[in-house]
Structures are given as structure tokens and as C-alpha cells.
Amino acid sequence: MKIAVVGTGYVGLVTGTCFAETGNHVTCIDIDEKKVEKLKNKVIPIYEPGLDVLFDRNIKQGRLDFTTNLKEGIKGAKIIFLALPTPPGEDGSADLSYILKVADDLGPILEDYTVIVDKSTVPVGTADKVTAAIAANAKVEFSVVSNPEFLREGVAVEDFMKPDRVVIGTSSKKAQKIMEELYAPLVRQGNPVITMDEKSAELTKYAANSFLATKITFMNEIANMCELVGADVDMVRKGVGTDSRIGKRFLFAGIGYGGSCFPKDVQALAKSAKEVNYDFEILNAVMSKNETQKTKLIDRIKDHFGDIKGKTFSVWGLAFKPYTDDIREAPALVNIKALLDAGAKVKTYDPEAMENVKGQLGDSIEFCEDEYAAAEGADALLIMTEWPVFRTPEFDKIKTLLKENVIFDGRNLYNTETMAELGFTYYSIGRAAVKN
Ligand SMILES: NC(=O)c1ccc[n+]([C@@H]2O[C@H](COP(=O)([O-])OP(=O)(O)OC[C@H]3O[C@@H](n4cnc5c(N)ncnc54)[C@H](O)[C@@H]3O)[C@@H](O)[C@H]2O)c1
Ligand SMILES: O=c1ccn([C@@H]2O[C@H](COP(=O)(O)OP(=O)(O)O[C@H]3O[C@H](CO)[C@@H](O)[C@H](O)[C@H]3O)[C@@H](O)[C@H]2O)c(=O)[nH]1
């Protein structure tokens, strides 16, 4: 099948590449000329593990190409995916301007019956708005389908190729059949395709993200309780996670959720509720609790050191989670800002995200070639992202590099007893502090 993907970011590039891998001819379209130039030169502009193998193979086999020209890119496409940004607007609601602009542009250039798919995360009612925008100028029949994406960055290819489920929101039998044909290679692996109306599909995406964000926040609250009563959040996590009604995943306490999805989607759902005069109170609590959780360790740092003006902190990890270079809403950046605002200095290392942070923070912090160089001469070490390379460092080497043997761990990477034996003062989340 010939398909087009409009928007070639984290979702669009993975969607396009994976559908090429299942035998389709895919054209990815983006207005960012530099990005398209890179892609044409076989350079992937993001870090996403495993994407390169599929990307190279499908370009070589002539199933994947790139353009900035919408009309050229959609020619002959049976399905057009919209994988465009839906960032928070000033009032917190999802900004649909990118989607509606492309919908306006598509109307006059559609040449045959086409399925237009909202792959972006969009509020209830967007399929109707996209339909109206296209219909204003379309000369041919078309259907708009809501097909939200549930992939996680860092494991995007795996999530896309083996999804827990595929949600297809459509009231058109014709569009449903075409979408089911497209997803058939993934369904054959035993994954369910759940077909529903457009509005339910749109809400499913926000419900999933908001539920997961709430689950994480709930565990962060339990962690805060643990610290006050002398319990251990890792034990509590194991104790509750083994209940199959609760499940083991997404129960890890830390320095708050970040990324390009949870923060904006929880906010957008709260805003959508408000628009229908419903106060979705639990979401307001999740958002405000997540904000305070992010800088929890800054309070510990100030308790430990008193005034931190002039002190140097080594920050391990910048990306909002491991296996990505994405720094959107990364808790590490909030912590770095708090340290700089208090007059402290920062030395940092991240395996993939340093270039993106350089673009934002310039030379206000020091970027180092590895985690040990980042620790050298620092007053303390802060762990912000659980990259595997940070899990088993050479602690004896760290001791020779840090001025004081103190670690503030936002991801609970180390065993507290081991840290006590090694002679570190060690603060983590939801567990007793180790003082040495
Ligand atoms: N990132 C994720 O993990 C993820 C997962 C599921 C869903 N989503 C949702 O998918 C959508 C896209 O997210 P993303 O992270 O891929 O965004 P992104 O910012 O990485 O990519 C969006 C791309 O769209 C391009 N673009 C903007 N206007 C355009 C236009 N008029 N024509 C062509 N291209 C245009 C941009 O240049 C950019 O390359 C959002 O709604 C997001 O909420 C994201
Ligand atoms: O137990 C956990 C799990 C995650 N996180 C944090 O939660 C955030 C989001 O993590 P994750 O969900 O793994 O990454 P995303 O790539 O943002 O994926 C989420 O957002 C995407 C965009 O909508 C959805 O498609 C995915 O299903 C959804 O998991 C990160 O800051 C994590 O550190 C925790 O603090 N504790």
C-alpha cells in the first residue's frame, strides 16, 4: 500500500519506517528543510534505538522516501497519517493549529478516496474538526480516522511493531477495512485491534497517559510517606506490584514524570474537562504534586549543605528518561535551573542528550566527556536519569573525584546498604537517607 506520513518527528519517523518495514511504500513529509535534507542523506535526526537498521533497509529497498512537498508526498497515498505536534497552548489545551493547517492544505489536493489518520494526540472532537477543514475544499470522498499512538520513546520501534493494542476510531466501514489491512502484519503477532468511534479513540489516548501519570504520582506520594514513617518505597512497590490488579510496571518513584507527553496530556485532559464544566480534580493534584516532586532533591541538598552558592554539582543524566536524546520537560533541567539560580555550578554528562541541552543552556554549565569527568572536583553527585552506564560505576574512583562522598539519587539506582558500606552519604527517593 502507498502511504504518506505528515510530520517526521519521533512518532512520524517511527510510524513511516515501521510501515515501510511491513512492506508499504511510505513517503514522509516535513516542513523542516534541514530535517528532510538529513533524512534524504540517510541521517536520522533523533536518537531512537533500533530505528537505524529498519531505516537503512527500507531506504535501500526503495520503500521509504522523504520530501518537503505535501502535494508530491501524498500522491497516490491511500492513507495519510498526521503525526504533527500538538503542544500545550497558553491555556493548557492542545494547540491544534499544526493539524488544522495541514487539514486545510490537504482538501484541495486530494485526488482520490483517502483515509486521513490523526496519529497525533488530539482532544475529543478533533476528527470532526479535521473533517470539516478538509471538506471545505475537497473534491473527492475521504474519511478521517483517529488512531492514537502509544509508543514510548527509547523503545519506540519495539512498541510500534508489537503494540499491546491498536486503537482505530472510525464510523466508516470502508476506512476501517483499509486500516485493518495496514495493521494486519502487527495483528498477526496476536495483538488486538480495537475499533470504536472517533471520540472514544481520542479520549482513550488521554485516559491512558493520564492514568499512567497518576500511577507514577501515587507512588511518588507513597515514597514521600515512606520517608516520613521510615518505610522503604522499593519494598512497598514489590509488595503492591505483585497484585495482578495493580501490575508491576510504572510504579517506580523518582523525581517526577517528564517528557513530551505526560505533562502536556494531563494538562490538556484537565482543560478538556473544564470546557464541559467538569472539574477533573484528581488531575490537578497530579500536576501540582509532580511539580514539587521534581525539585525534591534540591531541598535535601540545601538541608545537607546549607548555602550552596559557589558549590559545584555533578549531574548525571539530562534526558527525561534513558535511551533517548529528548529533553522536553526533563526533570534534570528543572534541577539544573534551581542549582544555577542558587548560585551553584553544574558539570554534567549524558550519553545522548548533551547536544540538545547545549542548544538551550549554552556554556552556563560544563559538558563533560564521561560520568567520571563530570564528577571530578564536584561537591556532590546528582543522578537524574537512569542510564545503564550509571548503574554500576566504579565507586572507589568516584570517591577520589568528589570533594565530599555524597550522592543525591533521583532514580534509586543503588542499594542503600551497599552505599553505607562504601562510606557514602546517600539520599534517594522514599528510602532512609544513609549518613556517613
Ligand atoms: N513522542 C512520543 O513519544 C509520542 C508518542 C505518542 C504520541 N505522540 C504524539 O504525536 C504527536 C507528534 O509528536 P512528536 O514527538 O513526534 O513531535 P515532533 O515535534 O518530534 O515532530 C513533529 C514534526 O512535525 C513537523 N511539522 C510541523 N508542522 C508541519 C507541517 N505543516 N507539515 C509537515 N510537517 C510539519 C515538525 O517539523 C516536526 O518534525 C504529538 O501529538 C504527540 O503528543 C508522541
Ligand atoms: O515507573 C515509572 C515510569 C516512568 N516514569 C517517568 O515517566 C515519564 C514518561 O516515561 P515513559 O512513559 O516511559 O516515556 P514516554 O516516551 O513519555 O511515553 C509515554 O508517553 C507517550 C506519548 O504519549 C505514550 O505513547 C506512551 O505510551 C507513554 O508511556 C519519564 O519521565 C519517566 O522517568 C517514572 O517516573 N516512573
Automatic annotation (TrEMBL):
Pfam families: UDPG_MGDP_dh, UDPG_MGDP_dh_C, UDPG_MGDP_dh_N. Pathway: Nucleotide-sugar biosynthesis; UDP-alpha-D-glucuronate biosynthesis; UDP-alpha-D-glucuronate from UDP-alpha-D-glucose: step 1/1. Its EC number is 1.1.1.22. Keywords: NAD, Oxidoreductase. It comes from the Bacteria. It catalyses: UDP-alpha-D-glucose + 2 NAD(+) + H2O = UDP-alpha-D-glucuronate + 2 NADH + 3 H(+). InterPro entries: 6-PGluconate_DH-like_C_sf (IPR008927), NAD(P)-bd_dom_sf (IPR036291), UDP-Glc/GDP-Man (IPR017476), UDP-Glc/GDP-Man_DH_C (IPR014027), UDP-Glc/GDP-Man_DH_C_sf (IPR036220), UDP-Glc/GDP-Man_DH_dimer (IPR014026), UDP-Glc/GDP-Man_DH_N (IPR001732), UDPglc_DH_bac (IPR028357). This is UDP-glucose 6-dehydrogenase. The lineage of its organism: Bacteria, Pseudomonadati, Bacteroidota, Cytophagia, Cytophagales.
